[in-house]
Amino acid sequence: MCDLCYLAVMGLVGAAIGGKLLYLVVNASRILADLKDGDLTTVIAYYLSGGFVLYGGIGGLFAGFAFASKTNGLDFAHVCGDLAPSLALAIAFGRLGCLFAGCCYGRPYDGPFALVYPAGSPAPSGVPLFPSPIVECLALVIVTIALTVLRVRKVKRNLMALFLLSYSVLRFFLEMMRGDGERGFVGFLSTSQLISLAIVLTLAILMARKSRIVMVNRQLFPRFCISMHFICMSLWAILLSSSEVKNMKRLVAILLVLASLLPAIYAQGASEDGIDTSLQDVLDRGTFILGLDDSFPPMGYRDENGEIVGFDIDVAREVCARLGVELVCQPIDWNAKEQELATGNIDCIWNGFTVTDERREVMTFSDPYVDNAQVLVVRGDSPVQTIADLEGATIGVQAGSSAQDAIEDTPGFLDTIGEVVEFRENLTALMDLEIGGCDAVVMDLLVANDNINRSGSDFRILEETLTNEEYAIGFRLGDVALRDAVQAQLDAMAADGSLSEIAVKWFGADITVVGK
Rounded to two decimals, what is the model's pTM? Predict the structure, then answer.
């Protein structure tokens, strides 16, 4: 079964079980009373045949996703990020179902857009009611659009946290205008309001602990909170126009709307006060997330067992051990590496990453640790001996790589060749070269040597290079504290010989330049 199908099945099963269990818990007192007065089989059949609590369904959905992620080797945080917009839209459609079914209706309301249900509906008929299903549906559509835009911009890890935050605030407010009584109450708060408060509190604790699941981008979070604030203000302008809302509830609603700005103000202040918390964030979280192209041997790739290995991986693992954190290797789309780093999905790009002037403008780099060059790989029987022999040739290259930059930046090269074909991975480009699809592939010298030695393919490397360059570790712009901590460990490894040992393991010689 494909990953998506497996996730969907496990998520739906979890949602069905979770929604029903919470419904039974909320209605436990009624169930016990009915069991005393009625037939056991009839009561059980009645409560099992209908009734569902949305928050229970969401909890069960997460449990299903977590189980599927664990058993299928998926990243739970990324699964949540990928599916957050779909979850928001699914709940929106669910509220339309509530509207047509006559459940989850609003309280009596004399303001604009009131709903009047027909006779025979579970909702009171002929009475103007607050349109709570419609308001919730429209708000969730707005949230879905916002999350989808962020998802398209490659934001993943914080999307579910943003959805839960926005939905909890929205649901807390809307519960004040619900008229159906079968919801369960503790004091003057409904069960859903208590769960909403618990979710917001849990998110606050996880964010304070820098949990990887709710890792929040310092620029994105305040903007999202402020946007949600104005959405809530617009919705509650309608609610507060009703004379049915008592003064105390008006006051509570206004205070809660204003309070929803506080996280944004705090996050905005934290992003502008110049404090670099990058190292402390990693230490508090206990994980260091390394972004890589997992098909880039010998720097970082998957071995025959599917494990991510390589020179960079061994060095990073030793650095993490010395820092007292766990290394997490996160494969990324190399063509979107800058977005993955900027949005906080990873802590660094460490995978044969070339330093360029353009990248220095948007990232903070470590000192170079290995020298490299961009070279041309051709078939062994190719007549090509120099770059000049490539006139009119088709050149393969990995999209978004420094090899692609070298093609564009080498004077006269584009005028000499015929066509440039982009590939997702170097391995795919080399396969195309082997079958004659292209005439040469531009790639990193270290990677080219490893691929030729490992595969035994009849390739050779031209002596003439396009560019000479250096590998370094790329961090988010301004993450100087984290960069300095990693650099200090690299310097220590160079001094005690452990960096040299790792280099000899992978290259047969110490080719590192740290401290030299």
Answer: 0.48
